[in-house]
Records
---
Amino acid sequence: MSSEADKDYGLLSQPSGIEETHDPKLQRRLPIGAAFGWLRAAWGDLVASPGPSLAYGIVVFLISALSVWTMITLRWDYLLLPALAGFMIIGPLLAIGLYEVSRAREEGRKLTLAETMGVRPYSLAQVFFAGLLLCLLLLLWMRAAVLIYALFFGFRNFLGLEHLLPLLVGTPLGWGMIVTGSVVGALFAAFAFATSVFSIPMLVKERTDVLTAVGTSVAMVWNNLPVMIAWGAIALVLFIFSVLTAFLGLIIVFPLLGYGTWHAYRSIR
């Protein structure tokens, strides 16, 4: 009989070990200040491995800038605001190579950029499945954003950002849309955060299935809710800073959040 380490997990080919979420290790209660410790550790990783860190940040910056330019050029600007919010949904998936940089540094190794590009997660098929689920969640959020717009402004053509922004901040109807969109977006973001913040690092490091990883991630977040809210707030502030700097801030912020997420996972798991 093969050992657990030898199992080859396909897409849901093994029954979910959701009972792992009752592991006593997951019952830890970390203080809120631990979130700032993760950020300090992330900065240490960035300073120790500037090449891979900045390379990932630059790539994400270019993808973000190109996506915004494409939406504006094709007059898809009605998707711009939900797309910006949706970036945080798929962020953990883009940081897989950064998780490996942090992991290697814990073991006293230093990875090159080429080595991070060749990282093979222990549960590779499950990572693809998790990515598919996150992409579906992103599409669902963008569809919800379009429906919210239709709820307040009807099925007329999109007014364009230059005309919509004054309506949003200058009319009661606009503020109603802002509040509704913020509440719905927060629910999507909270769900995505709870299910992916630890499941992606777990699939990278451990041989398991996506349902177990998602269940474990939710349990880890729930059992450490105050510190995870603090970490989510830090991520949100840094992301807003990146948007205000025309995404240039992502060059530093993205690797910081990637490394920080890994250290959060290692502190709790």
Note: Residues 124-153 form the longest helix (30 residues).
---
Amino acid sequence: MHAYLKSALTLALCVPLLAAQAVDDSLAVIAHPGVPKVDATTLQRLYTGRAIEVAGSPVNVVNLTSGNPVRERFLTQVLKTDNERYIAYWTVRRHVGKGVPPRELRSTAEVIEFVQSTPGAVGYVGSADIKPGMNVVFKP
């Protein structure tokens, strides 16, 4: 009986920890090697087309597709907006000839591949997708 209670207590303590890991909502901004660390203001300027360089070098930012939960977190936590407003912003900006929105990729795997293979590339992924050797330039 004592062993049963010990097992039940251990299980009761571990389940909340597993649940916390399952809803990890952290994200990270990654960049091609050589791109320096950036702050939230710089990212806001890059993802709204008001800046195209970091430390004097051109950058190429990419987004995940609309509806992706990591994109939603990025827009909320870093750009301080939502998807509807972000799309509307770019619709107006494109209409008046002030640029085009960042390229959209379908998955974090595509973002990682693009960033690693494209000089100056910047993208965002869930923190769980970070692997050793990646150039993490910002974490909210």
Note: The beta strands are 27-31, 53-54, 57-58, 60-64, 103-105, 121-126, 135-138.
---
Amino acid sequence: AILEGEEEIVLTERQSLTMWLNGLPLHLRPRSFFQTNSHVAARLYASARDWVEEIGPEGMWDLFCGVGGFALHCAPHVRGTVTGIEVSQEAIESARQSAAELGLANILFRALDASDFALGQSEVPELVLVNPPRRGIGADLCAFLDASPARWLLYSSCNPASLAQDLARLPSFEPVRARLFDIFPHTAHSEVLVLLRRKG
């Protein structure tokens, strides 16, 4: 959630709030997005980490990476470079701070539009993780990923309708594992993590 109002009253000199999830520091700045249920978010990140560890990919993109939760959890299990892309400069500054504190040398965070970044690349890593807003990743990015050499997609979604629409646009991939996270108890909202593998 992002909390913003017409007037912001600063009550501290600190520039960020540190949240510890699974032993990793994630730094939240005033306008950064973060999951409101940190207990379930920790399980979401841990599941992604475990699935990536099983694959051991050569490289990874984390698109719509926010403050870097997925990338920071997965980086130790990626043999090559992890690239995190997020449009919010504040979130990227937080992600870079966490990576530096953890001594993770194989992560690169950039403040760019995730779709524009991907569509402009000629090389795509073995694994691409996406954690888009409710609208999903859309037709253009789906078509790009479907035609790319990526072997694995890891899709974290907060909207089952856009997730289903995007999965239908990825005919070259098949779901091999999925997990539902009740991140908003007593509501109709949840988070779903789906691992997809290229067919054949």
Note: The chain has one domain: 17-198.
